[in-house]
Amino acid sequence: MKLFVFFVAAVVLVAWPCHGAGYQRFPLRMKTGYGERSSEVKCASFRLAVEAHNIRAFKTIPEECVEPTKDYINGEQFRSDSKTVNQQAFFYASEREVHHNDIFIFGIDNTVLSNIPYYEKHGYGVEEFNETLYDEWVNKGDAPALPETLKNYNKLLSLGFKIVFLSGRYLDKMAVTEANLKKAGFHTWEQLILKDPHLITPNALSYKSAMRENLLRQGYRIVGIIGDQWSDLLGDHRGESRTFKLPNPMYYIE
Amino acid sequence: MKLFVFFVAAVVLVAWPCHGAGYQRFPLRMKTGYGERSSEVKCASFRLAVEAHNIRAFKTIPEECVEPTKDYINGEQFRSDSKTVNQQAFFYASEREVHHNDIFIFGIDNTVLSNIPYYEKHGYGVEEFNETLYDEWVNKGDAPALPETLKNYNKLLSLGFKIVFLSGRYLDKMAVTEANLKKAGFHTWEQLILKDPHLITPNALSYKSAMRENLLRQGYRIVGIIGDQWSDLLGDHRGESRTFKLPNPMYYIE
């Protein structure tokens, strides 16, 4: 019996990371010596591990985490978590002397504009990303503000910081993105940087690094970076910034 | 009324980050527009923000987070969170070809040896750190293993990785640390690096970077770093490692 448990555990442990689809299809349940974990507990650990960048490059969330993710997003914890992160960014900003070329960089999707209306129709990340469907949704220009980020955005503006939006959205979405930002309450910005489809970069991390390098060359001081993806926050050319990771338990962009 | 609320909020927002003691003395309650957050919700956000490195350099946890932290540590979530992080480290390790000079670096306190027995007598981080009392406790040599890390340690050893313990404990604790590690089930290691009190470094981050530089010079390949503090995981000379952040909602070491 002990050997069998060991064998099962070994197969589980070896098989898990080999799945291209990451967590989705593989049962997370493992004999642990302290009993089975409930989905709620396991998925809270999944979520924490995503936020602390311990779980990376997952293509879908585990199937058993659909309901816990839904509960998290729609309950008060997600908003509280967003609030705490935005507060920290504001506290940090409010302690600084503001120079005229100081910028805060914000991502767009799931940082200032919520894409939860899209994801709630697509299993909160359990389905693999479908660019066509997602683009259709983006092109509606109907994404609401993430309210805690909107508050922080307004506070940073009133402190005198300039705002740069830096997104992986392609340039053909410029008009709809501008309109959506304004509709959601983000009325002003120093720059809105979308991705030139001719620009070849290996991933979002290097694209965002390259765009930040441009900003530094233009004479801006990057004071803070706020995003829902680690690829917004890691990489080069971060200037003297502190970075702030907003919660996103639904997907990962490399 | 609206103005009054705004004024209170402004005072709260400005006053909060000015406290030397960080979160402790200041009421976290704020009018948010979506109702008051309970301590449970706020402290879960505090914890998440600490793990994702959004909250830094706190000297004590907020007073209202003592009970939620106690519940978290003593409930199954803390252990589940530790398990998930250790699993990720193992999955990552198991996909690599092992070279004879490949090492995993582990911290000691709250990474392999639990200091929860100490912290549960000191408010789970609500009291400012008392080096004398903590040293007395360390010198007992009675710290238990963190069970999920112990499992992972044994698995990494059986994959063929070498283990280096790198700790901010001072060199005078070498004997008690060796004995405590063995007593807790950590029977072997490639190196156990404690801090030379004559070595002056500005903080733990630079101390750990310097020690890693030594390891790289000695020809080791740093494959993974596992610690409960961001100062274990950030900084220079990380080789080709992936890093793994174990949960610690109780204190922060710069």
Secondary structure elements and pairings:
The structure is a homodimer of 254-residue chains.
Chain A: H1 2-15, H2 39-51, H3 66-74, H4 76-94, E1 102-106, H5 116-119, H6 131-139, H7 147-159, E2 162-170, H8 174-184, E3 191-195, H9 204-217, E4 221-227, H10 230-233, E5 242-245
Parallel strand pairs in A: 1-2, 1-4, 2-3, 4-5
- Compute the number of helices of chain A: 10
Return the structural class of chain A.
Answer: alpha/beta
Class of the largest domain in chain A, according to the CATH hierarchy? Alpha Beta
Large-scale geometry of chain A: globular
The CATH fourth-level homologous superfamily of the largest domain in chain A: HAD superfamily/HAD-like
N-to-C terminal Cα separation of chain A, in Å?
A: 41 Å
What is the CATH topology of the largest domain in chain A? Rossmann fold
CATH architecture of the largest domain in chain A: 3-Layer(aba) Sandwich
Which pair of protein chains has the largest interface, and what are the residue counts?
A-B, 41 and 42 residues
Largest sheet properties of chain A: 5 strands, parallel
Oligomer: homodimer
Mean pLDDT of chain A: 89
Q: In percent, how helical is the residue content of chain A?
A: 40-55%
SS elements, strand count of chain A: 5
Structure in words:
Chains A, B: Glycans are attached at residue 130. Chains A, B: Belongs to the APS1/VSP family. Chains A, B: Residues 1-20 form the signal peptide. Chains A, B: GO terms for molecular function: nutrient reservoir activity. 2 copies of one chain form a homodimer. Residues 1-34 of chain A have low confidence and may be disordered. In chain A, helix 4 (76-94) packs parallel to helix 7. Chain A has a 5-stranded parallel beta sheet, with helices on both faces. Chain A is α/β, with parallel strands linked by helices and 254 residues long. Chain A contains 10 helices and 5 strands. Helix content of chain A is 43%, strand content 12%.
